[in-house]
Amino acid sequence: xxxxxxxxxxxxxxxxxxxxxxRRPGExxxxxxxxxxxxxxxxxxxxxxxxxxxxxxxxAYVELLAERTGIRVPLNRLGILQVGLSEKGVKGLKKTALxxxxxxxxxxxxxxxxxxxxxxxxxxxxNDGAVDNTVLLSALRKxxxxxxxxxxxxxxxxxxxSSESSTTVKTSSGAKYSARYVVxxxxxxxxxxxxxxxxxxxxxxRGQLVSYSTAPLRHVAYGPRGYVxxxxxxxxxxxxxxxxxxxxxxxxxxxxxVRSASExxxxxxxxxxxxxxxxxxxxxxxxxxxxxxxxPEYRSLIYACGHSRNGVxxxxxxxxxxxxxxxxxxxxxxxxQFRPDRF
Length: 343
Ligand SMILES: Cc1cc2nc3c(=O)[nH]c(=O)nc-3n(C[C@H](O)[C@H](O)[C@H](O)COP(=O)(O)OP(=O)(O)OC[C@H]3O[C@@H](n4cnc5c(N)ncnc54)[C@H](O)[C@@H]3O)c2cc1C
Description:
D-Amino Acid Oxidase, Chain A, domain 2, FAD/NAD(P)-binding domain, three-stranded antiparallel sheet, alpha+beta, binds flavin-adenine dinucleotide
């Protein structure tokens, strides 16, 4: 998703782009839950402001995609509920509340979401929500396929070599591509590409998800151990956070944990049939913030990786930033916390 959004944004500014990539089991973008949750998955400082700006970039972005592709990406901006299930949990939620938050007492919560009537209240995070990341990916792929400025190459990158004026990408088919700018956006695998330098800090963190065949909620809801996300006529429950290398399989234990965390938030889900379960590999950094910006030594190498738990949230805005960096446009956001050489 980061590679597609970056390629599209750069092409929109009139430049030609070659997108080199291959599909792999465990890709994060199709696996994700699609939450746009900067108020809950909360950073501090300018990174927090970046998350809010990323969320608020979405309405115009899905509009543009609908115009260009005919695909309307479902976007939920109803707000996210952090459900309190114990006195201690309620205290914790109130203590860490943002000025933009509002506490809903049990009666208000029941009126808003009858399926949460067992809870002791909830913290309401306005404007957060979710996007259907699978539909978003389809729209991005369609835009790339129907446009003229992005050429896609189905190939595995085996190494990159950078100099001040250009970077060369080598692939397993023996091809070599040189460009004035190369953007590294290879998800959890990015640090394994020889020459990727500062992306070596990125590691895979497996997340397992389940889907239920009913949709008792309209809002995304977080509980103490997980979250549930309404999508179409179904609900997604998540997720684990595991360090197991590049193993993208689900486990009985992981799925059991996710189900129990989801059903604790919304008990009626336990009555519904579970559909599929799946796993993906988040590209995580030690501080859970992306690596976004130019290589300090080689200006031709640009990092757009390590988006950790918020890559869907940040994809459209990351595309804008990459297009600014490539075209030399002034940056409107503070990226200091995302500096590639910070680890
Ligand atoms: C279970 C789960 C739940 C999540 N929930 C959310 C959420 O609710 N909200 C949110 O904002 N984020 C969420 N995320 C995080 C989000 O999915 C990621 O941060 C984001 O998708 C990363 O996008 P990416 O393009 O960097 O990586 P990916 O989607 O993994 O894409 C990387 C691409 O690079 C390709 N590639 C890798 N190496 C090479 C190579 N050497 N040569 C060629 N191609 C290569 C891969 O095959 C893949 O196509 C979740 C992730 C998971 C796993």
